[in-house]
Design a protein that fits this description.
The structure holds two protein chains of two kinds. By secondary structure, chain A is an all-beta fold. Chain A has no helices and eleven strands. By secondary structure, chain B is mainly β.
Chain lengths: ~110, ~120
């Protein structure tokens, strides 16, 4: 079946550095990808999404890159701040067909 | 606009007891979902609904039932709770009328402990 996974379960970065969180997906039919941030004790919060007709999309301090050839997704956070400390989940879906499939998450720790 | 709300926030059950978790959304979303989150397991889909009166099984439906009698509410029931159902439960909703349909908005979660 389909699955979404992450390369690293934990990531520690210095405050002010850039963070890169990686994700691999297995369903070649997936055409929608999304990143969520989950702070301790809270529900997942939408960060950014991207469709398969794009390979890059930028938001405020965040960039998502999509490489369909190797089925890889990454989230880049610029100038990482202590408030960015959280667990980050990627998820994918086939538009209008299947619910999102979530990865297990990467814990980002920001060192002040 | 409260978004997605869940009640209760926390509950302790004894094995064999039953309970219902309530999810409500005020965004007029067609789709609603129930997930469970266990340490190291990420989010796993239990059941979902694509509209009032319809439900479908997700990845881990056993031991749970759901109902969507009203568009804004999605109920998750445990008929006979088991310790394996100790988890954090999240409800989410998403729209259908325009893309991206898949963007789901989550509630704050319900922590359930089954003894």
């Amino acid at each position: 079946g389909e699955s979404v996974g992450l390369h690293l379960p934990t990531l520690s970065v210095q405050e002010g550095d850039n963070s890169i969180i990686n994700c691999a997906y297995s369903n070649s039919a997936s055409d929608y990808f999304i990143w969520y941030k989950q702070e301790s004790g809270k529900g997942p919060q939408f960060i950014i999404d991207i469709r398969s007709n794009m390979d890059k999309r930028q938001g405020q301090r965040v960039t998502v890159l999509l490489n369909k050839t190797v089925k890889h997704l990454s989230l880049q956070i610029a100038a990482t701040q202590p408030g960015d400390s959280a667990v980050y989940f990627c998820a994918d879906a086939v538009s209008g067909n299947t619910p999102l499939v979530f990865g297990k998450g990467t814990r980002l720790s920001v060192i002040a | 606009n409260a978004g997605v709300t869940q009640t209760p926030k926390f509950r302790v059950l004894k094995t064999g007891q039953s309970m219902t978790l309530l999810c409500a959304q005020d965004m007029n979303h067609e789709y609603m979902y129930w997930y469970r989150q266990d340490p190291g397991m990420g989010l796993r889909l239990i059941h979902y609904s694509v509209g009032e009166g319809t439900t479908a099984k997700g990845e881990v439906p056993d031991g749970y039932n759901v109902s969507r009698l009203k568009k804004q509410n999605f109920l998750l029931g445990l008929e006979s709770a088991a310790p394996s159902q100790t988890s954090v439960y999240f409800c989410a909703s998403s729209r259908r009328d325009r893309a991206p349909q898949e963007t789901q908005y989550f509630g704050p979660g319900t922590r359930l402990l089954v003894l």
